[in-house]
Write a structure and sequence with these properties.
Blueprint (H helix, E strand, L loop, with lengths): L6 E2 L8 E12 L4 E11 L6 E5 L4 E7 L2 E2 L6 E2 L3 E5 L4 E10 L9 E5 L2 E5 L18 E11 L5 E4 L2 E7 L4 E7 L4 E2 L5 E4 L2 E8 L5 E8 L8 H18 L7 E7 L6 E2 L4 E5 L12 H16 L8 E2 L6 H18 L2 H21 L10 E2 L8 H34 L3 E2 L1 H9 L11 H4 L5 E9 L4 E9 L14 E8 L5 E2 L7 E4 L2 E4 L3 E7 L6 E4 L8 E3 L5 H7 L3 H22 L4 H12 L5 H7 L5 H7 L5 H18 L1 H11 L9 H17 L4 H14 L3 H14 L1 H15 L3 H12 L6 H8 L10 H12 L2 H4 L5 H14 L3 H8 L10 H15 L6 H11 L3
Helix pairs in contact: 1-2, 2-3, 3-4, 3-5, 4-5, 5-6, 8-9, 9-13, 11-15, 14-15, 15-17, 16-17, 16-18, 17-18, 18-19, 19-21, 23-24, 23-25, 24-26, 25-26
Amino acid sequence: MKEPITIFYKDYAPPAFTVKSCTLEFIIEESSTRVENVMEIVRCDSEAKELRLDGEMLDLELLWVDDVLYSEEMVTKTDDALIIPLDSDSARIRIINRIYPDQNTALEGLYRSGGIWCTQNEPEGFRRITYFIDRPDVMCLFTTKIIANKERCPVILSNGNLRGTATLDNGKHLALWEDPIPKPCYLFALVAGDLGSIRDTYTTLSGKKIDLAIYCDPGNESKCFHAMRSLKKSMEWDEITYGREYDLEVYNIVAVDSFNMGAMENKGLNIFNSHYVLADEDTATDSDFMGIESVIAHEYFHNWTGNRITCRNWFELTLKEGLTVFRDQCFSADMNSERTQRLDDVRALRERQFVEDAGPTAHPIKPQSYMEINNFYTATVYEKGAEVIRMMYTVLGRERFRRATDLYFDTFDGSAVGTDDFLWAMESESPVDLTQFKRWYSQERTPVLQITTEYSHQKAELVMKIVQKLPKNTRDEEQLPYAMPFRMALISPEGSEYPLVTQDVLVLHNDVLWLSEYENVMTFKDIPMQPKLSLNRGFSAPVIIECDEIDYPFLMAHERDGFVRYEAAHRFGIETLESIMSTGHIDEGYVKSYGAILLDETIDPMFKAQLLELPTITTLMQRQKVIDVQAIFDAQERLKKTLAEVYSDLLIEGISRLYEPSNSSIDGISMGKRALKNRLLGILMSLGEDFGSQICVRHYEESVSMTERLAALDLLENYASQNASAALEDFYHRYKDQTLVMNKYFAVCASSRREGTLERVIALQNDTAYDVKVPNLVRSLIGSFARNPVAFYHKSGAGFRFVADKVIEIDAINPQIASGLAGAFKNYPKLSHEQKAQMGCELERIKNHQNISNNVFEIVSKILDAK
């Protein structure tokens, strides 16, 4: 293994040379692809005497500098670069090299997915296509000619606008694409193959007509219409909300099965994991439809927040990703339910990012160093990054935020910039100084707000103390207090809200306080009765609240803020489960409050389904000093069974009333009914195999909605194994030829909490529907098992051994996917002595394996070095 190199943010320097324009010609053949690359180079640093071009796994055939043919002796060629002596202010570099897409199992650069040639260049894949200055702050104009066999590749696409096509000899044809807008090479894209498509148009507010197309494997065209509708809604929303009009003549999306990420925002030619494009009522769940709408929007919104303005280096990745996640979250909230969307966002943050923040791989949203940048496409950079943007939105408000983003777009259009440039635009409209707020970019871990109060009836005032408890970072260093907006309310016993009257902190809006001290003490006046506390409304800051004075039953019944009401139910559930684990006692107050929600017909079904959700095993694991998965699982099942016994009649009646087997609509009401019905059925099934299994079987057999069918299948798998076998066999034979649905099948099997799950997962690797080279299938089978706490943390240690074996095996094929799997070991520091020894042995085995990638080495080393 080559010694890993750590790259530091402090060492960033502007490029010595840049590329003004790049003309590419690809000749795609069956066994290899010939790439001709002509670059107009401009020197930026007058002292520079060498041009360094990045390149990996390239066969260099010919090189010219200003029309002079260079021999191998005139340049220096290494495994990752081509270094050319160059002492001039400009030069024309022409390179011919050959690449081998079929051998590219890492899926970075140009590779083949089935019969489709496609690219993935973010963050550093372009260097696997041709020699280039492969960094995001080198932005140039690209013109691309693609030549391929017309029968095998009737579709040939690249960035920008189509400028011409021609039929050539020997059954070949060409297409010429020109992108008129400068971009970094990570946004370059190429697709060639035999593809079906659907087409539409969109007319912008200024009257410009845009041609739209979505490409897929032939036969899947009917599954693209939801994605097309989502795209047009995204385009309209971005024009209305941000004033951002699309800037090319065409917008193309291509769906491929083999893709490391969810999707990629290449300029004018988005390449998508097919999971986030293809959907119909027979094969996609409600969450699939929602996910497609969100990801389509995300990649479209990148056209401005990522493409027109990009990050100057990869340490600044959150500049484009955090901002664009925030934008797609707001879009989804406007398209559907703002309350439901917010709760989904917060749950995802806590389940993924809070775990990351608490573990050995924690990092700021703007990291200071990395060995492998692929390891920083994380929930911290994306989801926590979005929360930081949301805090600024809360501080500024809708109108000021829009003015600030207009300034950002107008000032930096066509540039590669940093997070400080975005903050400068925000400060132009901010009512407060954001200097201290910048710590959210540089500090890691999740801050805790410890809140206590003292009420004086005589003075009619409440004194509140909010103390920031700041965990040390991964280097065991103390961290500084944050500045943050904090939404809260003081609620009277009758449910009305007292005005927040205080001189101790700045009140930004009616219910938004600006907290900036380590210890914030404030006195609220004119409070005639002791109030109920409603804290961190809307999850206004990504913090953990510690407060012993919250009246959970009151808030569950009366709070108008959707997040706080959900949080009351969630926290009451956590305390109840922890009580079961420590004392065996089930809080009757929780059971009564749960029943009150069940009976409340004024709550819309989707929100009720969220309120009735029990805390997950992952949530409880985060709170344990020493992880005991079995204890959490047993407590969870006991609480479910108690609720089912007390409310069995209500559950059965609710299931019957909500069940609409012929309804597969994806409107909010229909999705809410299915979500609530499945939540009630999940509680009912805890009573045992004979009680609810026939309901599950009937729902599986009758429903036309994949949401209902899959939920029933999962419940049968976990609670009624005798009935599950027939349903699983039917599901397999019905969908064995549809890869996207087989992903769901593998996930159900690998997520099972029954004994023997590991053995079944091992056997499923030999199934004809499984392919270790397809990332979606690996994530569905191996990834689902690694995220299955009951199976993965089995006391035998066999789960650890299996996942370690898979990390080593897959690392040789696709390091990016392997490093993602390695993250399953992140709870290593919190395990019992016995399990820590088991996991530590596997981590050392991975770390010391010959030729392990930098991707995996970095993750495993951080876990082993954790304090």
